[in-house]
UniProtKB/TrEMBL annotation:
Keyword Transferase: yes
GO BP of this protein: aromatic amino acid family biosynthetic process
Protein's name in the database: Protein kinase protein with adenine nucleotide alpha hydrolases-like domain
UniProtKB keywords: Hydrolase, Kinase, Transferase
InterPro entries: DHQS
Residues spanning the membrane: none
Molecular functions per Gene Ontology: 3-dehydroquinate synthase activity; hydrolase activity; kinase activity; oxidoreductase activity
């Protein structure tokens, strides 16, 4: 790539990031405002349950869109698994409930088990920001329809997709009116422009389920 081409690529990336920041500023409500006090925000983080678990999407959400007192749900998405593949996948965090940590920590060997260390990091991060963590696994096909169902059922006001969901980006943009971002390969996020809100002033904080009902 030429020197000029490299400079152009950098400028384009900065443009995307700055647009994201402006969009975030538009959607976020100031702490302590009447609107933020009356709305219980629920942030859903959609992750490929077949890939190695990382706290990167959670950390981004905590630093950018989640207020204290909100709920964040880690959603692991995977197909129905055969026994050998299931055994490999179950070595990661998804089969372990967050409530199990307190019992596991009574045994010293938990500190040598990577999946428990990862879950403990999740709990520690959420405690630091005053957020209530949840974890859920969904299996089936087509997975993207199951994800949409979970977004509406959980009344998510923000959705953070990990980078492994990029192939379904257009699908989610056409189906959902909530605030959405997708992690990219550089560890940054790109805003997903979903279906337009009916009323941008009154719809801030509304869940996808309530907005979809209004459209039906």
């Amino acid at each position: 790539m030429t020197k000029g081409g490299k400079k152009k690529k950098i400028i384009m990336r900065q443009s995307v990031v700055s647009w994201n920041n402006r969009a975030l500023a538009t959607y976020r409500m100031p702490n302590g405002s009447p609107e933020s006090m009356n709305i219980t925000k629920h942030v859903l983080i959609v992750m490929d349950g077949m890939k190695e678990f990382t706290t990167e999407p959670l950390e981004w959400a905590l630093e950018n869109v989640i207020n204290a007192g909100s709920t964040v749900t880690l959603l692991g998405v995977m197909p129905w698994l055969n026994i050998p593949l299931s055994s490999k996948t179950w070595l990661d965090v998804w089969p372990v409930g967050l409530e199990e940590l307190s019992f596991v920590k009574e045994k010293n060997e938990w500190k040598s088990d990577l999946k428990y260390l990862k879950l403990q990091k999740v709990v520690d991060l959420c405690n630091k920001y005053g957020v209530f963590p949840q974890k859920k696994v969904i299996m089936g096909y087509p997975s993207r329809l199951l994800v949409v169902e979970q977004i509406t059922t959980l009344h998510a006001t923000w959705v953070v997709f990990d980078r492994h969901q990029k192939n379904d980006r257009k699908f989610y943009a056409g189906k959902l009116p909530c605030n959405m971002v997708m992690m990219n390969e550089e560890g940054e996020v790109d805003m997903i422009k979903g279906r337009p809100m009916i009323d941008s002033d009154s719809a801030v904080g509304e869940s996808p389920a309530s907005l979809l009902r209004l459209r039906s």
